[in-house]
Amino acid sequence: MELQQEIAVVRWLAQSQLASLVPRVLWTLEDTEYVAAVFSELPGEMSFHGKYLIGAAYTAKLLGSGLRMIHSLPVTGCPADMRLENRLLVAQDRLRNQEIDVVDFDDARKQTSPKELMEYLLAHKPASTETAFTHGDFCLPNILIDHSGISGFIDWGRSGVADIYQDIALCVRSIVRNLGEQWIQTFSASYGIAELDAEKVTYYQILDEFF
């Protein structure tokens, strides 16, 4: 499903102002059992590459401005709806089918069962959301950088209309892992938020454990 969604979204993005920073769909094969695709290559290197970590402040600022660029796209015609209610339904299905990789849980949740995490998600749904077009997995390996700045965004399989904190939460986690917690404020300021909603950040990081 993710690959089919990625194909549809990338084709939609090809008509947007972000087109030059998104791979093109070169070839697809879809039948009743399989989906395959070839995407064009983008220039640059993943933003966790060593030479960019030397300038962590620069990288954090690029992440903020890049995410704001994505969230500024009009959602008209977007082929994917990834709002919370839809994501929770998929997460519950994955839980019932025992498809959760507990080995891959973040350290803070290694001792918590998927069932307990789902109970938390259902009991603590955010009271409000700010929807936009979102990347869905906005972390450093999926943002490409070259000498001129951001050169591309890859891995659009979870993208669609959703709460902006879907992206913010995963970017915060990726910044902590790759750059250091001290650069979160630089990222958020570049994005345009003076103070992040810590509860939403935690919530969407927990939701990501199911995918």
Topology:
Elements: H1 2-13, E1 25-30, E2 35-39, E3 45-46, H2 50-53, H3 56-71, H4 84-96, H5 114-123, E4 131-134, E5 143-146, E6 149-153, E7 160-163, H6 164-178, H7 184-191, H8 198-208
Antiparallel strand pairs: 1-2, 3-5, 4-7, 5-6
Highlighted features:
alpha+beta; two-stranded antiparallel sheet; Aminoglycoside 3'-phosphotransferase, Chain: A, domain 2; three-stranded antiparallel β-sheet; 211 residues; 14% strand
Structural class: alpha+beta
Would you tell me which CATH topology applies?
A: Aminoglycoside 3'-phosphotransferase, Chain: A, domain 2
Termini distance? 12 Å
In oligomeric terms, what are we looking at?
single chain
Approximate shape? globular
* Poorly predicted segments: none
Helix content: 40-55%
Mean pLDDT: 95
Name of the CATH homologous superfamily: Aminoglycoside phosphotransferase (APH), C-terminal lobe
Order of helices and strands: HEEEHHHHEEEEHHH
Task: Tell me what the structure shows.
This protein is an alpha+beta fold. The protein has one domain (43-208): Aminoglycoside phosphotransferase (APH), C-terminal lobe (Aminoglycoside 3'-phosphotransferase, Chain: A, domain 2), CATH 3.90.1200. Helix content is 42%, strand content 14%. The protein contains eight helices and seven strands, in the order H-E-E-E-H-H-H-H-E-E-E-E-H-H-H. Helix 3 (56-71) packs antiparallel against helix 6 (164-178) and helix 4 (84-96) runs antiparallel to helix 5 (114-123). The chain is globular and about 45 Å long.
